[in-house]
Amino acid sequence: MKKITITLSLIFTGIISTNAQNILDFSQDPLSLFMLEHIHPNLYTQADSIVSSLDSGAQFTPQDYMLADYLPNGHIDTATFYDDNGIAEFAYQGFNIGSQTDIIGYDITSGTTLEDRTVFYNDASINKDTLLEYYEFDGSNFQLFTYFRLSYNAQSKMDKAEIHVYDGSSSFFLLGIFEFHYNSGGSALDSVNFVSGIGVPVDLLRLHYFYKGNGEISRIDIKQDTAFTGVYETIAYEIPKYAAGKIYELQQIAYNDTTSVFEIASVTRFLSRTSGIGLKENTDRHISVYPNPAQNDLKVNGLEQNTTYTIINITGAEVKRGTVAKGASIAISDLIPGTYILQLDIAEKSVSKRFEKL
Question: What pTM did the predictor assign?
Answer without folding.
Answer: 0.69
